Amino acid sequence: MSDSAKKVAVVLANNYEDVEATSPIEALENAGAEVTIVGIEKGEITGKKGDTQTASKTFVDVSPDDFDMLLIPGGGSPENLRIDDAAVQFTRDFVQSGKPVASICHGPQLLISAKVVSGRKLTSVNKIRDDIVNAGGLYVDEELTEDGNLITSRVPGDLPAFNEAITKALG
Questions:
Q1: Could you tell me the pTM of the whole model?
Q2: Residue 152: closest CA among 43, 84, 71
């Protein structure tokens, strides 16, 4: 990748929804982006269905200044990330930077813990809609919702619209 390639942080922990990581990563890389997997620890991270990704950076190694976009795949990963203070702070700082933040399925759990959903319109898997509302967010049941720098989708079936929106937002 050239130094001019757009840089995307993908935050992952074990039990992520495989296709919610692999499909957007592939779309972003096909658009010329440089993707970095950021985890609580460096090393292998395993998805719900057996996919593996390797975290080359931890949250203490990175800053939102290092990236042009944040991607938060769903599954059990956001629940595992939201209890890590450094992951929550990185997410909060990234949203506050104004740069695009893309989240699918259970991804908004991390946004909720970062306290950045109040007054924002977003979607997610319906299992956490009450959590969004209780955090002051405006939940909508749509395949794709964009509110400022937040780009959200619900489930793997929404990936075509989600991938198109995130590659467009990346420029």
A1: 0.97
A2: 71
Above 50 in pLDDT, residue 1?
no
Q: What are phi and psi of 134, to 5 degrees?
A: -65, -25
C-alpha angle 32-92-83 in degrees, rounded to nearest 5? 105
DSSP 48: T
Give the pLDDT confidence of 22-65 residue by residue, as tens digits: 999 999 999 999 999 999 999 999 999 999 999 999 999 999 99
Q: Among this protein's residues, is 170 annotated catalytic?
A: no
Q: Which position among 105, 114, 155, 170 bears the catalytic label? A: 105
The whole-angstrom separation of Cα 27 and Cα 121 is 24
- What is the dotted CATH code of the domain comprising 7-170? 3.40.50.880
Domain ranges (residues) in the chain: 7-170
**133-145 pLDDT, tens digit each:** 999 999 999 999 9
For residue 139, count CB atoms less than 10 angstroms from its CB and return exposed for 0-12, middle for 13-18, buried for 19 or more: buried
> What is the reported pLDDT for 3?
56
Q: Helical H runs in the chain?
A: 18-30, 77-81, 85-97, 108-113, 129-134, 159-170
